Amino acid sequence: MNEWELIEYIKKDFKSDVELPIGDDSAVIKDGDKYLVFTKDLMVEKTHFILENYPLNFLGEKLVNANLSDIAAIGATPLFALLGLCLKEGMKEKEIKLLLNEIKEKLKQYDALLLGGDIVKGENLSLSMTVIGKTRRYITRDGAKENDIIYLSGEIGYSRAGLYEFVKRGDIKNEKARDRFLRGNNRLDLISFLKQVRVDALIDISDGFYQDLTHILKSSKAGAEIYLEKIQRDPYLEKIAEEEGLNYYDFILNSGEEYELIVVAPEDDEKFFNEGFIKVGKIKKEKGLKFFLNEENINIKNLSFTHNF
Question: What range does the domain containing 50 cover?
């Protein structure tokens, strides 16, 4: 059983009579004239990160960013957080405080209050956070419509490149790759803009562009065409992709933990370009995901990481 099969099982066995239950980036509960949104993320040593040489302050920042990205991916802003810590045996007080101080500062940056949580000790370091946010209009994965435009909020591929260099060389020389991999990212800066335009579907890139766009298409019962020439080329990423034995687009389209947004909107609107979005494709009625490079059909593999149990 893999993680997607397990999620489907949970959805069927734990049915929730709420506004938006299990299956999107956040769950949603109606609260008067607004909506409360709930999300949770886990980071586990040896699964999500290698503790040796990993700056603990960056790890705290990445934990917060992963949760805030899910809040952004439904069009909300954060309010509160709950923190769960399994501290590794032998961790020093200064290391624990370094981790906690970055979590505190990152939450403070977005006016999110830490309400409580739980702390235990174990063999490996594990971090868990729940974030509660609010919005007056939430955006789901299932609203993509034929001929909608697919926008990407920024460049991708750097998190995978950072991971590769960190594991192979213990150092990441490229600044974009170092920041994206070690610190994470969120696009809450775009929420105000997204509330001013019509958006039919929205998701953040946590598993990889290919996998996360597939979530939108599955939920929306639709297909898509992606125009690869619209996506950036970077000699640094080309070099890392070659070292990993992948072609360029297989590499960047399967880079997880990018935390950029995939936005599906009905209009080819210049406002999106002014906000830094890249128009990368179009929603199609026929199911399936097709990739084109200068009008030539290109085969792209779905290499996104999946937990198998």
Answer: 3-135
